[in-house]
Amino acid sequence: MKGHLFLAGLGLLATATSAQPGAQQPLFATKAPLRIEIKGPITALVKGRREARTTFPATLTVIATGEHDPIGLTPRGITRLREDVCRFPPLRVDFTPPPVGPSPFAGQDRIKLVTHCRPAEDFQQKVLLEYAAYRMFNQISPASFNVRLATIDYVEADGRPFATRVGYFLENDHALAARLGLVRAKIRQRVPLAMIDPASAARFVLFDFMIGNLDWALQDGPPGENCCHNGVLLTTRGYANTGLVAVPYDFDFSGLVDAPYATPPDGFSIGSVKQRVYRGYCVHNNAVLAAARDFRARRPTMLAELGAVPGIRPDTVKRATAYLDGFFALIASDDVVTARILSRCLTGG
Predict the structure, then answer these.
(1) Which of 302, 207, 285 minimizes the C-alpha distance to 246?
(2) pLDDT confidence of residue 48
(3) Which DSSP category does 238 fall into?
(4) Could you give the 3-state DSSP secondary structure of residue 47?
(5) Residues 58, 73: contact at Cβ < 8 Å?
(6) Contact in structure between 60 and 37 (CB atoms under 8 Å)
(7) Which of 59, 88, 101, 268 has the most beta carbons within 10 angstroms of its beta carbon?
(8) Burial code of 216-235, b = ≥16 C-beta within 10 A, e = fewer?
(9) Structure pTM?
(10) Stretches in the chain below the pLDDT threshold 70
(11) CB of 169 within 8 A of CB of 95?
């Protein structure tokens, strides 16, 4: 009862009804890239992206099968939604109704599509690097977001080609939770560290440190929003006051991706997002040591994911690998982790 009362005071609610592990969704059952066409008022969408986040009617066609589904497209995001940052916004895709049968999109109702931002080839490589970050975290834990790469032909409603660019679909957070037999926790106030599973917190902060990402908050969300910033907390069905599983997402501000618009968050006196700053908590130090051992063991499989991304250039892989090598030098042994990383841990509660 005390746990129930404590979480009720925090405003935590389970947001799904089943805690049984779910099957893998067809969209993420394979890594093979999709080829699709999205047809609709693309120019109007791009120009009207900030007008109340309007949803535009469109259709999605799977080229290999000819499957044709009605969808709604809604511009989304914060930084990438700005016209001075990206010429093409990230999208939310709503299937109306959800596809059935053998469709790769079977069971999908609402899903994020990460797009190319700008048409230059360099921005295509940035998309592939962020996709690779998700694939690398998949190697660390099943409590991670699935992604599916796609080459997308954007076509105007009247049939005129708009652009063909690479993007990827990001697993819905409720689908992630259902796959793990958990539910998403909505917490409307600051989350005490004691409520977060130490192993998942360690993976969260160490991975973001690995890719040079500072654009996250593990205990708080943006003003007026639920916890957390660029992370979700998962729990068992009902109430629990410990063991919340933290899962990171949104890596475009990382040093690994090194997007031209990425700048360090306020409060960090560094000149570039490529400069790593450790933001882990001292209370999780033992778990971070264990996580670092696991990262060392999984280094070959993580780097293999980077090199296996379809369309990624050898020079992109070379630079990214060199950047990640700097991280692995910092976790070369328990002693190095303790001296170079854990000595900078944060007290917090």
Answers:
(1) 207
(2) 81
(3) S
(4) helix
(5) yes
(6) yes
(7) 88
(8) bbbbebeeeebbbbbbbbbb
(9) 0.93
(10) 1-22, 50-52, 237-241, 349
(11) no
